[in-house]
Amino acid sequence: MQRLKVVLLALMAVFALSAFASSTAFAAEAEFLPTSSEKYTGTSGPGTLETLSGSQIVCKSDTSEGAYTGRTATVHIDFKECKNPSLGVTCTGLGEAAGVILVLASSALLVYDTLTPTLGVGLLVTLVPVHFSCSFVLIEVLGQVLCLVTPVGTAAKHGEVVCQQSKGDATETDYFEGGVLHTVTGLLTSTNHGAEESSGELTSALTLTTNNITLDG
After folding, report:
1. What's the pLDDT tens digit per position in 162-191?
2. What's the rounded Cα separation, in Å, for the pair 188 and 138?
3. Rounded to 10 degrees, what is the CA torsion of 194, 56, 102, 138?
4. Is residue 192 a part of any domain in this protein?
5. Chain Cα centroid distance, residue 216
6. HSE of 167 in the Cβ direction (CA atoms, 13 Å)?
7. pLDDT, tens digit, 9 for 90 and up, residues 49-80
8. Which tens digit of pLDDT belongs to each residue from 17-41?
9. Three-class SS string for 104-126?
10. What's the confidence (pLDDT) of residue 45?
11. What is the CATH number of the domain that holds 101?
């Protein structure tokens, strides 16, 4: 009987610790940034969209803008001087200047990329379907991408958003929501209205906000 009591007390302690950890995660997720809107601008160097079969769209730079409000964000990116290197042609978004591809987010959310040993923060972006042409080739890109955001735990105006991939495979695919592990749907690319193919985005943008913000509450 005494042994049973010891086991029950141990189980209660485990449940209590689990509940504490879960509530801590929820509290931290609710306090990523100030609740008032904070605008940002961003610039990057070269970026590459690549499919699993090896097709690439390469852009020399991009400029971005948007705003953070709590855990949510707006995203507006103009990729510039974009080309399909295999065809040797310029790629242009519908209604855009030559070589420019506009990317918008239907939703963007700050999430935890890692919980242990330290917190990591990612920006989970769900795209408004992107349409552009590379000469006679029509391309559509849709889905989600998870990019790492730094610095974490430090009040700063300057930050960096890094999206990584290797041969069409996204490097970052998992994130935590309320302490529960989730996997992103990933990016999908179709050519001339054909079958959708898994894709990855490689780019790194430096961002600047008007005021200091802290990414992990």
Report:
1. 999 999 999 999 999 888 999 999 999 999
2. 14
3. -30
4. yes
5. 16
6. 1
7. 999 999 999 999 999 999 999 889 999 999 99
8. 333 333 333 334 434 665 678 999 9
9. EEEEEEEEEEECCCCCEEEEEEE
10. 95
11. 2.40.160
| Closest of 147, 150, 179, 156 to residue 28, by C-alpha | 179
Sign of the Cα torsion 48, 79, 74, 204 reads: positive
Contacts of 1 (CB under 8 A, 6+ apart): none
**Contact 112/124 with Cβ under 8 angstroms?**
no
User: Is 16 among the domain residues?
Assistant: no
Could you tell me the pTM of the whole model? 0.83
pLDDT of 40 reads 96
Query: For residue 196, what are its two tokens?
Result: 């959708």
Taking CA atoms, 103 is separated from 99, 147, 161, 165, in Å, by 13, 15, 15, 18
Q: Which residue, chain included where needed, has tokens 């009591």?
A: 5
- Per-residue tokens: 187: 């990016």
Question: Which residue, among 92, 99, 97, 198, has the nearest Cα to 137 in the 3D structure?
Answer: 92
> CB within 8 A of 180, min separation 6: which ones?
none
How many domains would you assign to the chain?
A: 1
Nearest C-alpha neighbor of 159 from the set 172, 145, 171, 148: 148
- Tens digit of each residue's pLDDT (9 = 90 or more) over 142-166: 999 999 999 998 889 999 999 999 9
In a domain, 87, yes or no: yes
Its domain, for residue 86, covers 31-213
- Residue 19 in any domain: the answer is no
